[in-house]
Amino acid sequence: MGKITTVEGYIEKHEKFAEALTQLRQIMRSTAMEETLKWGAPVYTVDGKNTVGLGAFKNHFGIWFFNGVFLKDEKNVLEQAQEKTKALRQMRFTKLADIDANLVLAYVKEAIENQKLGKQLKPEKKGRTVEVPELLKAALKQEKNLLQSFNALTPGKQREYCDYITSAKREATKHSRLDKIKPLILQGCGLYDKYKNC
């Protein structure tokens, strides 16, 4: 079978769990969620936001709650997909008889409500802090307009300048690099923006 382009095609491909996936699909479609196909699998959205997904594997199938971390899970039926997935939770099944339609619908309704409330786990920013070398620090302290221009740069551009000075081995090279970058900083350019006609 080629690329899956429909939910029906996805269910057909996973014939071992076809009846169970069809039942889960009916539960999803009984709500106001919109049915789509993303990453080759059924995904149900609220206001364009991924809310619930269906998935089938070799020995199990299940429901993915994209922001499942916010579900109360009073019945303790949700699992964390992987350690690195912070928000995603899944409800796993191995056979059709495992599905409690009322329980599934209750969890799905809660997920829909959470989505409407905007509950979402924001990814952590992993940006490095900018370590300003002493030579540049001294220049910034002496020249207020240089400091203002440097602070107006993005952290990435600030890092470029700091790395440029730090990577010089000789003190004389560090000083000549500082002289070279001052006009660029004052223009609000990044170190490599000169190649972009800053």
TrEMBL record:
<dbReference type="InterPro" id="IPR014922">
    <property type="entry name" value="YdhG-like"/>
</dbReference>
<dbReference type="Pfam" id="PF08818">
    <property type="entry name" value="DUF1801"/>
</dbReference>
<dbReference type="Pfam" id="PF13376">
    <property type="entry name" value="OmdA"/>
</dbReference>
<feature type="domain" description="YdhG-like">
    <location>
        <begin position="19"/>
        <end position="112"/>
    </location>
</feature>
<protein>
    <recommendedName>
        <fullName>YdhG-like domain-containing protein</fullName>
    </recommendedName>
</protein>
<dbReference type="InterPro" id="IPR016786">
    <property type="entry name" value="YdeI_bac"/>
</dbReference>
